[in-house]
Write a structure and sequence with these properties.
By secondary structure, the chain is an alpha/beta fold. The chain folds into three domains: about 5-60, SRP54, nucleotide-binding domain (Four Helix Bundle (Hemerythrin (Met), subunit A)); about 75-275, P-loop containing nucleotide triphosphate hydrolases (Rossmann fold); about 280-430, 434 Repressor (Amino-terminal Domain). It contains 21 helices and eight strands. It has an eight-stranded mixed beta sheet with strand order 3-2-4-1-5-6-7-8, with helices on both faces. α7 (about 125-135) links the parallel β2 (about 110-115) and β3. The longest helix is centred in the C-terminal third of the chain and has 18 residues, at about 390-410. It starts with a helix and ends with a helix. The relative contact order is 0.09. Bound molecules: guanosine-5'-diphosphate. Guanosine-5'-diphosphate (GDP) binds near residues 95 and 228. Guanosine-5'-diphosphate binds near residues 90, 91, 92, 231 and 254. Belongs to the GTP-binding SRP family. SRP54 subfamily. It is found in: Cytoplasm; Endoplasmic reticulum. One of its GO terms (cellular component) is signal recognition particle, endoplasmic reticulum targeting. It catalyses: GTP + H2O = GDP + phosphate + H(+).
Length: about 425
């Protein structure tokens, strides 16, 4: 089983579980059996797989899960007021996320409101007020009152009277002492009786995620996780630790500082990112947009044979340069995003690509169509440099880039090529 298929099987199993409304023993067993099958097919040692299964069953406490993972509890009915309390360390993006969450639901027809229960940090209320005003969401807070419990109760009461159906309470993320922070959170929760407590986590905290999430879970009944700053470099693997520590699902991710840079958590691109595979579903959609219709089957056929030649790279550069806004398209394509096209440096990257193409114009057909890396010997490299008026170093750099891309794209090898009209099915297969 090639890596892409293994990744696919595992994420399919996880997806099935995350689609289930209630995670019970059967859902867990089905998921584990599916993963076990995929691992054994990939020649993973039998003992290792068996131990993994036993360990997961030991860690997962189904009694706890029944309450925490019942999504019917999380998705409250519109019309009935729900109180949602946000917790997380200062700087995690909590206040920003509260507004994003409110804004997201407002667009879906809810009537949200924001309550600032962070009386510890000067400026917290101002920040919430500013965000809320921008999004036209009612807010409540005080510059004078220092008791967060009092403020949150007053805010919740007021918005219930005003028929708001989603009342969001933003709590403090810092205190003189950690103990005081958790005690305050506990008191606010006791007084406002939230229907859901959301733990907000910065995706870059990495290994520290488990302890941090667990500390919060021990004080309040965390029922969901939101991972912020997924637009940065972090892969977000810490989110898995937070899920394990809180036994709660990730429901949204933050992908930027703006109000609408907020997405419902989707396990497929997340797992792809963790496995370093790029966003394949976005990629397949883009291939249909970027590559002219008549070239699509041919390109996919070549890729499925594992032949990512220099000519394919050239053709993709050509296609991509025709498209705009270029950064957006590139960011979707595996391998083209971070290294070749760093954000904010699209112009330079575009120039670099044009330079690569000039050098490739000096290549022979044999060189362009070969997938044998040994073909590009010293004399060929020198000829290409002379022919294109570039240095040997430039040619070497272009070939390095080709090798890097070829390695990434080789994951497409063995892919089943769809018949006409089956493109979307392929896209599903790759991401399932
Ligand atoms: P709090 O202290 O937890 O309330 O955090 P804030 O909401 O004040 O956010 C801290 C910083 O992170 C601010 O500069 C936010 O603009 C930024 N931020 C929050 N969420 C995201 C995100 O998803 N992506 C990026 N790039 N920045 C974010």
């Amino acid at each position: 089983m090639v890596l892409a298929e293994l990744g696919g099987s595992i994420s399919r199993a996880i997806q099935q579980m995350s689609n289930a409304t209630i995670i019970d023993e059967k859902a867990l067993n089905d998921c584990l059996n599916e993963i076990t099958r995929a691992l054994l097919q990939s020649d993973v040692q039998f003992k290792l797989v068996r131990d993994m299964q036993t360990n997961i069953k030991k860690i997962v406490n189904l009694d706890d899960l029944a309450a925490g993972h019942n999504k019917r509890k999380i998705i409250q009915q519109k019309g009935k007021p729900s109180v949602v309390m946000f917790v997380g360390l200062q700087g995690s993006g909590k206040t920003t996320t509260c507004t994003k969450y409110a804004y997201y639901h407002q667009k879906k027809g809810w009537k949200p409101a924001l309550v600032c229960a962070d009386t510890f940090r000067a400026g917290a209320f101002d920040q919430l007020k500013q965000n809320a005003t921008k999004a036209k969401i009612p807010f409540y807070g005080s510059y004078m009152e220092s008791d967060p419990v009092k403020i949150s109760v007053e805010g919740v009461e007021r918005f219930k009277k005003e028929n708001c159906d989603l009342i969001i309470v933003d709590t403090s993320g810092r205190h003189k002492q950690e103990v005081a922070l958790f005690e305050e959170m506990r008191q606010v929760a006791e007084a406002t009786k939230p229907d859901l407590v959301i733990f907000v986590m910065d995706s870059s905290i990495g290994q520290a995620a488990f302890d941090q999430a667990q500390a919060f879970k021990q004080s309040v009944a965390v029922g969901a996780v939101i991972v912020t700053k997924m637009d940065g470099h972090a892969k977000g693997g810490g989110a898995l630790s937070a899920v394990a520590a809180t036994k709660s699902p990730v429901i949204f991710i933050g992908t930027g500082e703006h109000m609408d840079e907020f997405e419902v958590f989707d396990v497929k691109p997340f797992v792809s990112r963790l496995l370093g595979m790029g966003d394949w579903s976005g990629f397949m959609d883009k291939i249909q947009e970027v590559v002219p219709m008549d070239q699509q089957p041919e390109l996919l056929q070549k890729l499925s044979e594992g032949n990512f030649t220099l000519r394919i790279m050239y053709e993709q550069f050509q296609n991509l340069l025709k498209m705009g806004p270029i950064g957006q398209v590139f960011s979707m394509l595996p391998g083209f995003s971070s290294e070749l096209m760093p954000k904010g440096r699209e112009k330079e990257s575009q120039a670099k690509i044009k330079r690569y193409m000039t050098m490739m114009d000096s290549m022979t057909n044999e060189e362009l169509d070969s997938s044998n890396p040994k073909l590009m010997n010293e004399s060929r490299i020198m000829r290409i440099a002379r022919g294109s008026g570039r240095s040997v170093r430039d040619v070497m750099e272009m070939l390095e880039e080709y090798k890097r891309l070829a390695k990434i794209w080789s994951k497409m090898k063995g892919l089943k090529i769809p018949k006409k009209g089956e493109m979307s099915a392929l896209s599903r297969n790759m991401n399932a």
